[in-house]
Amino acid sequence: MAASKLPFRRETHPPMTTTLSHPSAPVVDTSASPRARLHPLPLAAFTLTDQFWAPRLTLVRDVTLRQQYAQCQQTGRIDHFRRASGRKHIPEFVGKYYDDSDVYKWLEAAAYALGTGHDPELERLVDGAIDEIAAAQAADGYLNTYFTFERAPERWDNLARMHQLYCAGHLIQAAVAHHRATGKNTLLTVATRFADLICDTFTPANPGTDGHEEIELALVELYRATGSRRYLDQAAFFLDQRGQQPPVLDGSPYLQDHLPVRRQSEIVGHAVRATYLAIAMADVYAETEDEGMWAAVQALWRSAFERKAYLTGGLGAHWQGEAFGGDYELPNERAYAETCAAIGGFYWNWRMLLLTGEARYADWMETALYNGILSGISLDGTEYFYQNPLADDGSHRRQPWFGTACCPPNIARLLLSLPGFFASTSHDATTGRRTSTEAGSAPSGAPGAGGAARDGTRGSLWLHHYSSGELRIEGPRGSGVLRVETNYPWDGHVRLTVAEHDAGLSEATLRLRLPGWCAEPRLTVNGQPYEGRLEPGTYAALQRTWRAGDVVELDLPMPVRRITSHPRVLSNHGRIALARGPLVYCVEGADHPAVDLRDIAVPAGAAVAGELRPDLLGQPIRLEVKRDCQAVAAVAGPGQRHAGRKPCVREVERPVEHTGSGQERRLEAGCVAGREELLGVRPAATRAPELHRVREVQRKPTVLARDVAVATTDHDHLRRVRHHRRCLPSSEAPACALVRGDRNASTGRMFTLGRPGPGTVPGCAGPSQRALAPT
Length: 775
Description:
This protein has 775 residues and is of the alpha+beta class. The protein folds into three domains: 3-421, Glycosyltransferase; 430-555, Sandwich (Maltose phosphorylase, domain 3); 559-775, no CATH class. It has 16 helices and 20 strands. The chain has helices at residues 53-74, 77-85, 99-116, 120-136, 164-182, 186-201, 215-226, 229-240, 271-287, 291-307, 339-356, 359-373, 407-416, 503-506, 629-633, 691-697; strands at residues 39-40, 46-48, 423-427, 459-463, 469-475, 478-486, 493-501, 509-514, 522-525, 528-529, 538-542, 551-555, 560-565, 577-580, 583-584, 601-603, 607-612, 621-626, 736-738, 769-771. The strands form five sheets. The protein has a seven-stranded antiparallel sheet with strand order 2-5-6-7-12-9-10. A five-stranded mixed sheet has the order 1-3-4-8-11. The protein has a four-stranded antiparallel sheet with strand order 15-14-13-20. A hairpin with an 8-residue loop joins β17 and β18 (621-626). The termini are far apart.
């Protein structure tokens, strides 16, 4: 591509001499990005104290990071660097050519842990790994342990397949995170030397880019950390290599190389690569005037999240190629939904939120986090899912590691950076006018009104997600502490208290996300109702002069919602999904070995309610459905067994209830021992002896976020539903939601709910899904 087509003038740059960003900078630093509306807070600004996230993050820091480091040692990933440096004699490279990236992602995760708490042992492991990496770097700055010694002549060959720049990108991200967390430059020096070599190597005279996107977004963050413009230029250069004629890569949609990026409007190809491409495009736009890039990112987002996303934020329908399918092609059993793709979707929506302040992006972040990402790690923090099909035959289980181990450290780095995604700030010089993403302001004199006028003179504090903790704001005008108390996601009551304040917080506009799933939010300030308009899927703006002791209470009612899919999602005809708050529920046949799930039906009129179970792990909410068995059994439909062939539910000596080891929740369909009961989970200590066989079958239970239960099944051949999988929708107003499933003698059966119907109700997860009236 000609130099004139680059969005920036390329220059020859000296080595980095600019001032580095502050060590406490956010995960993604848009504080100086001209196109960003919101600016994230430092990672340590929000201290989590809740019972949902805080214990999980502690587990990831204390257990998961150690387990993953041990796996990197045992599988030779650390030894790769020792071999490359000559510190350890290893005759040949054994592993994958992209193994380096797993070490880099682990380092990034560990850096976030160090940024939020002192851990001498972890710091020792990190410093030791960085020492091995630095020793392996070549004199010219090149660093890839696969392309050393006998493969050194192959450097930069086959960029479409060999992930050299992809690995470099994860090195850069780890280095930036490590510097921001610790203030050290040890890894950043290594990364900038490599980045400088990359910038010197790939030019208009020597074009190239990587088949797996990652280097682009990493270079943008390196630009933000160092101030060196060459890295931003190089990121844009790499983006512009795609879709050229003749192709720089292979010209395929699989590598997003079929069209120039500004002309791409449909999300295609490998799902993780596609999301990373979109992230990079959003990052480049945030720093530039490239409106063509922004238009393309928005079109790609609509393609992904309005027509190709699963209900739980999973992305990628095809096992072959780990790729997106066509519009509304969302199979259940054949879903791939890689954990890394859901994480990519989370990061992409974060960029979109920072650029626009629109609540729909935060809604999708929440959906993916609780349902499509948390399923990827076991409750004990040592086993993982790579693929997340929506239904399976019981053979799909978590593993402690993989030959391609991209997902485990990816989950770790997201979870350990999670406090950085809860809140952000904005300078209202760009947000002083009302937008469609904000709920109406309170009238003058009403709670929430007052303070400075909306003239762009006051800043805003945005709360995107809710969890108990303390949020500390530091700014040029002072500081403040906002205390958050909630039992989210089990309960929608959120209490905010101004604990400390000075000029920095007293004049801020507080903006609270009203989730799109919440039909009737309620808001009070010091006990007085907020008199403005509260619109789901927006932010409520509270403008007043804040004083210590002020209390804001937000209520987000969580009735059980019945969700149906778009009629074009053929695999979901005859199905509904059940959701409560941000959580999607699922059904697991292993919990009902004495019940033929094909004989169970849940009528549309059946009451479904949530019940707090303090006796269960995590004190979750279970769903309970009550209905007369005989009435349910009388309903049958095409392709289903006639209910008269067997009783609706067989009686068993005891309820068969299964918790496994995880943060799971399930929709148990059936009357056990003659009782009208749906959904129950019991701790392992209370399990009946007959459960041992089930536990053996599912000794590594799948997990979604604790309250996650979905009624789902594949249209052609149904098997059992695994609770960590997404529940797939069905109809708008089914006369009766019928259950179907294939018998599996050892693992149970699965079932689906619902029957197709017309109409779309806004405010669900997206146009691919619809909502029925809350139960």
